[in-house]
Amino acid sequence: MSFAKLFREAGTGRLIKTADSKTVGTTAVQVDSTETYDDVYAIILSSNSDNSGTIYYGDSNVSTSNGIPIYAGETVVLALGDATALYLIADAANQKMRIAYIYDG
Fold first, then answer.
1. What end-to-end distance do the CA atoms of the chain give, in Å?
2. Is 48 helix (H, G, I), strand (E, B) or coil?
3. What is the CA angle 44-51-42, rounded to 5?
4. What DSSP character marks residue 95?
5. Could you tell me which of 33, 7, 32 has the C-alpha nearest to residue 21?
6. What CATH code is carried by the domain that includes residue 92?
7. Structural domain range at position 58
8. pTM for the full model?
9. Are 96 and 48 in contact (CB under 8 A)?
């Protein structure tokens, strides 16, 4: 994964790595096929404010009817260390999601 930023969160000893945005469409996509670090504290999902549709997250069977919605401009933080278990799908093509990982430092 190509990381755009790496910096230390003030006062907590945690590292935040921010990835470039991921394009999500009407077919489920895996958030990441390689991020399975033991020291991941949380995953941050942020739906671009310019999105025209809603992005949903869940397991490999996620759909727009069973996934948890993230509306345009919203951000969620998941206490989940394995990004390979997380999938995204949207109700419209070409939606953008930014993904960041918080690591225990």
1. 19
2. coil
3. 5
4. E
5. 32
6. 2.60.120.770
7. 3-104
8. 0.80
9. yes
The one-letter code for the residue type at 87 is Y
| Cβ contacts of 97 within 8 Å, gap of 6 or more | 21, 22, 24, 45, 46, 47, 48, 55, 70, 88
**3-state secondary structure at position 76:** strand
Cβ partners under 8 Å of residue 10, min gap 6: none
**Structure tokens given for 17:** 């790595």
- Residues pairing with 53 in the sheet: none
The DSSP bridge partners found for residue 18 are 5, 100
Q: How many domains does the chain have?
A: 1
Tokens of 14: 């945690």
Q: Phi and psi (nearest 5°) for 85?
A: -90, -5
Mapped onto helix, strand or coil, the DSSP state of residue 83 is helix
pLDDT in tens, the chain (105 residues): 333 344 444 445 666 676 668 999 999 999 876 655 566 778 889 999 999 999 999 999 999 999 999 999 999 998 876 767 889 999 999 999 998 887 766
